[in-house]
Amino acid sequence: MNPVKTLRIAAGLSQDEVAERVGVLQGAISKIEMGHRLPSLRMLANLSDALMLNDAQAGKLARALMAESGSLKAESGITVLVAIADVMQLTDAQAGKLARSLMQNGEE
Fold first, then answer.
1. For residue 61, how far is the Cα from the chain centroid?
2. Distance between alpha carbon 7 and the CA centroid of its chain, in Å?
3. What pLDDT digit, counting tens, does each position of 41-58 carry?
4. CA 103 to centroid of chain Cα atoms
5. Contact 64, 3 (CB under 8 A)
6. Beta carbons within 8 Å of 47's beta carbon, 6+ residues apart
7. ∠ at Cα 22 (77, 61), nearest 5°?
8. pTM for this model (two decimals)
9. SS3 (DSSP) at 52
10. Nearest 5°: CA angle at 14, between 39 and 24?
11. Which domains does the chain have, with CATH numbers?
């Protein structure tokens, strides 16, 4: 099962509720859960907040999404985040903190 869907269900939230918290349409959440779309870094940070994830869980989510993304990897901000985290041997917590830090500084 898709990691976003797993976390959403565990939180007891509908796609509509997550979408509202993230600031996107329900269809965007559906596409992520079906594996048709990777979230942007901004959406990853917002998803992490909406699902009340700590930095380690956010980093783990980013890596899990990359692991199952297949051909969606090209030129995604999340691809770059995970590549940097892997090269720098960052923990999941450090990768999650990096994603949130990039969003606070206006990076996409």
1. 6
2. 11
3. 888 889 999 999 999 998
4. 12
5. yes
6. 4, 18, 22, 39, 53, 61
7. 50
8. 0.79
9. coil
10. 40
11. 3-104 (1.10.260.40)
> Are 73 and 79 spatial neighbours (Cβ–Cβ below 8 Å)?
yes
Cα→Cα distances 76→29, 44, 72, Å: 16, 11, 8
Query: Which residues, at least 6 apart from 25, have a Cβ–Cβ distance to it below 8 Å?
Result: 19
User: Side chain identity at 17, as an amino acid letter?
Assistant: E
Reading the block at residue 46, the tokens are 């917002």
With H, G, I as helix, E, B as strand and everything else as coil, classify residue 70.
Answer: helix
- pLDDT for 54: 92
Q: How far is CA 87 from CA 71, 90, 95, in A?
A: 21, 8, 11
Cα dihedral 59, 65, 22, 43 sign:
positive
Burial of 57 (0-12, 13-18, 19+ CB in 10 A): middle
Distance from CA of residue 89 to its chain's centroid? Answer: 19
The answer to whether residue 8 scores a pLDDT higher than 60 is yes
